Amino acid sequence: MIKKNEKKVGPSFEENIAYVEQSLPVQKSFDIVRRDMEIGGKEATLFFIDGFTKDEAMLKIMDSFFGVQAEDMPEDATTFVKRHIPYVEVDVIQSFDEVFRNLLSGVTCLFISGYEVCIAIDCRTYPARSVDEPYKDKSLRGSRDGFVETIVFNTALIRRRIRDTHLVMEMVEAGQVSRTDIAICYMQDRVDKALLENLMKRIEALRVEDLRMNQQSLAEALFKRKWFNPFPKFKFTERPDTAAACLLEGKVVILVDNSPSAMILPTSILDMVEEANDYYFPTITGVYLKVSRALITIGTIFLTPIYLLFMQNMDWIPDMFRFAIIQEPVYVPLIYQFLILELAIDGLRLAAMNTPSMLSTPLSVIAGLVLGEFSVSSGWFNSEIMLGMAFVAVANYTQPNFELGYALKFMRLLLLILTACFNGIGFAAGCVLVICFLAFNKTLSGRNYLNVKLN
């Protein structure tokens, strides 16, 4: 459908070509290619992006063009497409806005003298890596494929798993400059209709220049989060089997071009801590993994604050746990030790991410032995504090959601500071705040993490 005040492809072939060259930097950009030819005695021009076009397919199509005789040329473009373009994905476009959108996304656009339309031949191909297993979201017994940056590949990975007539994948776009493709995937007979309608209205109402950070930009544009609540609003996965399972549960999966992951709605705290291994093992093993992960997740929040609380109130410690009392002299207050180590762990994590792979192992050994041993022997840190923070650092990786890990870290810091300042009352107040952050973390579905409807 042509919008109001939108320029149409006109009857003059020369004016159409001149308008394309005027609107696009054909002469300046080396990758925007113009190819003039003659088809059936009529002038024709191809525009395409170098690097997006399948050379073999275009050679066969052009060979078909050069075999067309003047007496075989039909009067309208639709008949020409049916008779003389031996390719599957071909469309007839009437507006220049659609021409530019298709051309810049890799579609080859053909103008022929005498036709008041542009013929779009979708013989594009995108540079893409192989569908290897995700680096972080691994499974011991599951499939070894993962989402990539090409949206068509990602939809195919889901279609391969769900061969049902009710599976719908609607394609929309967002960003006035980037015009990023977005695929909304859902099972028509299982999806929450109210959630789907709300989601589609939000996407249609988006007025953003671009989605420069792809999926994250879309998430922030769809649902404005409160800055003081760090818990994520969406669940992300790089595994197509997880996305397919969520679709069969009635959830909505959003795929964004150039993003190797899927965004899943609606979300609860139980969805956040799930992973693929929970479903690839027998029931009792899966339940054990879920329970152990939940307990460890709770431990990452409360272990160090509870330890600090007991160290501030020695008479509260039961006799069976007296061994945990710090024996060496404490030169640096415990709260400062915890806070410095929290910052140091993040510093080591960032350093590991930016360290070349060939140096990561020796540098990790040096950091662990030299820094750890020196910090304890010099009196900066006590060994019990180092042990507790080591547990917290490792336990953060028991759940796959990276953003949730930092949300739990902020809750732990809140508890530590309140406990250090106000002792038992501060710890109790911190626990209430943690519950409030969970209970009032409203998601796109209108429900919170505890799956309770919020007004």
Separation of the first and last Cα atoms: 38 Å
The helix content, as a percent range, equals 40-55%
Structure classification: alpha+beta
Number of strands: 10
Assembly state? single chain
- The fraction of residues in strands falls at 5-15%
Low-confidence runs of at least 5 consecutive residues = none
Mean pLDDT: 88
The Rg value, from CA coordinates, equals 29 Å
Characterize the main sheet.
5 strands, antiparallel
> How many distinct helices?
14
SSE topology:
Layout: H1 13-23, E1 32-39, E2 42-49, H2 55-66, H3 77-84, E3 90-93, H4 96-104, E4 108-112, E5 118-121, H5 151-159, E6 167-174, E7 180-187, H6 193-204, H7 215-222, E8 235-237, H8 240-248, E9 252-256, E10 262-265, H9 269-272, H10 283-312, H11 334-354, H12 357-377, H13 383-395, H14 402-439
Antiparallel strand pairs: 1-2, 2-4, 3-5, 4-5, 6-7, 7-9, 8-10, 9-10
Helix pairs in contact: 10-13, 10-14, 11-13, 11-14
3D structure, described in words:
This protein has 14 helices and ten strands. With 455 residues, it is of the alpha+beta class. The radius of gyration is 29 Å and the shape is elongated.
Overview features:
14 helices, 10 strands, five-stranded antiparallel sheet, alpha+beta, 45% helix
Quick overview:
With 455 residues, the chain is α+β, with helices and mostly antiparallel strands.
